[in-house]
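Subject: Protein entry, chain in single-letter code together with its fold tokens

Area: Proteins and the way their chains fold up in space.

Attached in line: The record itself begins immediately under this heading.
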Amino acid sequence: MPTDKPIRRTRPADRKSQLVEQAAVLFADRGYTQVSLADIARAAGVTAPSVYRHFDDKQALLAAAVLAGVDDLEACTGRAMADPDARVDDLIAAVCTLGVRRPQSTSLWRWASQHLTDEQNREVVLRTRAILHRWGAALAEGTDLAEREAVTLAWAVLSVAGSLSVHNTRLSTTRSLEEVDLLVRRVIVLRPATAPPLPPLPPPGAGIPTRRDEILDAAAALFAERGYSGVGVDDIGAAVGITGPSVYKHFSSKMAILAGIGQRSATRLEAGVMAAYASTSDPAKLLALLVDSYVNVITSTPDLSVSFNNSYALAGQPTAHDLIDIQRRYVARWVDLLTQAQPELTRERAAIDVHASLSVVNDAIRMRRGVHRPEFGAQMAYLMKGVLGV
């Protein structure tokens, strides 16, 4: 009589790549600091200790996930441009497909630099830059585009293609591809060198900076440089010449400081909203004015980029609910104006368009790409309006 033999379970040959894939999805969805090795192991269907057979720690997994995304971009570019007669259409189709079907491949590079080593960042930057220069060369061929303009457009294309990962609006894969393709095609016909000057911000109100303001200024600068998790209260205190415990006389926690930075940036954006509505009631003109205001605010202070880049840290915090609601209402205002200016748009498509537009400048600021050039703000506003069709 035959006896039952125990089932022998074999370890998948691609276990390492499976872990990288699951880590990339989780990191892109929740943020690096909000994901544990146990979360990654659970998603991959393995035990946490087994992860250490392949990776030393979570940081090593992040590096592998980011580099896997660069691999995807290189492979996508190589396939699209393998034929000497390849058209820009082939490249657009490949990039859009990657952004829609594997958004983590086009999004992890956005915020991961603060968690990578200098050597890892150098590799990511050099390889990504090489990819974008190939895209730029393809976009410039047969046109009057200068190399710098073409590369600027290539970066904007990458931001638009990867923008689905920064919000929760979802269409079907087919509809998403159609919308992202449309937005990318709006980008590639733009000419950044022709961007009109950016109207300046109105002068700030008079007032003597307080110790609280100094703490917010110092914290914003540190968070922008190292990320929220890489800065302690003692670091913030030292930056303003006080001890860490003295900071608590003004803020109850580091989280309260981050919330304060967000509230300050929200106040500045709301001032721009009020000024825009005071000058016109036309939806398209209002949206264009809000673009100018947004670019002015994000380029004049680190507050706004710090607030958005570290929003994952605020998630679930009772004291931050009001701030998160303010941010959502601000973006919703853009969506409302876009649907009024372009009635053929559904609200879902308008939301995708708005987030794609915001991603262009948010990514450039996050990567510190050309931010010190005098034309930077004007070109960002011009590209954002191009994406929105206003």
User: Anything to note?
Assistant: The radius of gyration is 23 Å.
